[in-house]
Amino acid sequence: SQQGEEDPQALSIQEGENATMNCSYKTSINNLQWYRQNSGRGLVHLILIRSNEREKHSGRLRVTLDTSKKSSSLLITASRAADTASYFCATMTTDSWGKLQFGAGTQVVVTP
Amino acid sequence: GAVVSQHPSWVICKSGTSVKIECRSLDFQATTMFWYRQFPKQSLMLMATSNEGSKATYEQGVEKDKFLINHASLTLSTLTVTSAHPEDSSFYICSARFYGNTIYFGEGSWLTVV
């Protein structure tokens, strides 16, 4: 079953703009991960944030986690056409031993 | 770094036949692997947890007799779609647990049943 929701479902922006997408989940987690998937391809791991962390950065990516609201956000700054992809959040509970529950995903289109 | 390989990347099979997809951990031993399915324009849904040396644990709604999972060694799990039908056409992707909660995904396999 799906762990939670992501919004927006789709996002269309121009190069140079920032893209923000949100993820909500339902149960207590050990960590939350963000993945990128280009059309027809596999998953690319972007960033992992643990339940005791509130914010994490990696290059142009910024992830926040609010465990009290059971939500996370992914910000891509200065977007590029190559950032066009679907982005998924995925949660891992403490007792899941590697099992992930994925959100519905946000489809991002960055136009030059 | 750790790598998980899936084979085949693409497979087309006739309705009613069976097809096997392999998931290999190339440079580490994985006692636990996971199989996910993704229909076009949808998210990934966990199908089952594959445990080396024991039976797989299937998620609710997944037919264990249709999706046979065998984790015969510490580096290989296989998913066999039996008596495949067009509605089984999907993207299948595996992941392997490295240690703790560290997991690595395979590249995925596209199955088209005609």
Structural features, described:
The complex is a heterodimer of chains A (112) and B (114). Chain A has 112 residues and is mainly beta. Helix content of chain A is 0%, strand content 54%. In chain A, strand 9 and strand 10 form a beta hairpin. Chain A is globular and about 45 Å long. Chain B has strands at residues 4-7, 10-13, 19-25, 32-38, 44-51, 57-58, 67-73, 76-81, 90-99, 102-105, 109-113. In chain B, the strands form two sheets. In chain B, strands 2, 4, 5, 6, 9, 10 and 11 form a seven-stranded mixed sheet that branches. In chain B, strand 4 and strand 5 form a beta hairpin. The A-B interface holds A 1-2, 30-31, 40-43, 45, 88, 90, 92, 96-105 and B 32, 34, 36, 42-46, 49, 59-60, 91, 93, 95, 97, 101-103, 105-108, 110.
Short description:
The complex is a heterodimer of chains A (112) and B (114). With 112 residues, chain A is mainly β. Chain A is built from no helices and 11 strands.
Keywords:
heterodimer; A: 112 residues; mainly beta; five-stranded antiparallel beta sheet; B: 114 residues; seven-stranded mixed beta sheet; four-stranded antiparallel beta sheet; 11 strands; 56% strand
